[in-house]
Amino acid sequence: MATQWNHFIDGKDVAGDRHLAVFNPCSGRQEGHVAAGSSREVDIAIAAAAAVLPEWRGRRPIVRGRILTEIAREIRANIDKLCETERAETGKPTWQAKAEIEIAAQYFEFYGGMCNVFQGETIGLGEAYHSYTRREPYGVVGVITPWNAPLNQAARGIAPALAAGNAVVSKPSEFTSGSTIELARLALKCGLPAGVLNVVLGSGDEVGSAIVSHPDIRKVAFTGSIRAAKEIGKIAADRIIPLTLELGGKSPNIVFDDADFDEAVTGAVRAFVLNAGQICLAGTRLLVQRDIADEFVNRLVAALGEVDVGPDEAAAVGALTTRAQYERVQYFFDIAREEGATVAMGGVAEKKPEWGDGWFLPLTVYTDVTNDMRIAREEIFGPVLVVIPFEDEADAIAIANDTNYGLAAGIWTQNLGRAHRVAAAVEAGQVYVNEYSAGGVETPLGGFKQSGYGREKGIEALHHYTHLKCVTIRL
Predict the structure, then answer these.
(1) Which of 50, 67, 157, 421 is at a distance of 20 to 30 A from 319, taking alpha carbons?
(2) Given 148, 198, 275, 371, the catalytic residue
(3) What is the model's pTM?
């Protein structure tokens, strides 16, 4: 039976007048519909959020925290159902979907615990004054999320927004709406008042723009493409409202000649194949010191040969989530050929019998790449790695920073001094040393340059979902 996802507004399912098709990436077949909203549904959702905002904002932080903690428990209790939804919409292997859903639960757990400890401070102005700061919620905030990790990224924005006392209107990707709707239903069951979390479905051009443009939206968190961020930024600038933007990346993963080869090979594989490369943080530019480059690539290709790609629930790598992304990655295969890169493996859209009509692509590695090539500069967002040799520490830093992006970087070395020097010099919001994609819900996440601004995750996110007010009293 086909799945039908409706809006979730003021604690109720709201059917739409128009619908968009939903496809299963593992089969390429249509398996349902999602409501296609407009400014009308956005207006209704924001009105519901504004109406309940005083009640939610006025609750003691510890009470809000209990509800968020209960949501975390409910996510874990429903992990199989949520996993089924995510797998059908994203094409992820079961193990990966469950891992991301567990992290979604951790966001609510973490921010549930933070509610009662995130406070202002007193400022000493002498005996004649009492001066202090307060952290106050913005009000109704918009959370707009992408298709590559639906529930995980919804939780990343929604949990701190709710913890701070805001009400939320969320718009997931039209390709992967189901798990965010299920999250809103679970939250209501856990005691979140109706209207505090609303989900409006549909396209970014229509629903996303309507959220950012609405006069009662006081802040927006957006994760997605630079193109969409520029459009959102224009609207937000005109309205003078704050944004948190977590955008793309072309992250360098730097391997020095003193690195532990076994660990660095394993880390380099994980850095670009996880989620079929559909991760903004992916380490897709592998910078290897020249004297070890050939040996390192040989070992990397051998390791990748053991990584299984396909529709099996236990596969290491699943499908590309959208047909457009599946076709975009193949477009870069053509670009790589035109630019003269050497194919170490992959680089051709295969049609294996076990893949059927699913949107699967081979793991791909290119060598003889220079940093001015398009495949080295543009975010491909697929299981594609480019290998660029470097001479020394200064050369590695120069190549790493020669990009419009600045989301993440990896460093592999056993020299502690070098690790600190390079970490300080690389222009990236996250730097991982001797492990790629380390950290947890406690660590802040955000980018430099065109990878965005503001921070999600950790205590830092709560600063971005609150106003800072200073009160000074003459005694």
Answers:
(1) 157
(2) 148
(3) 0.97
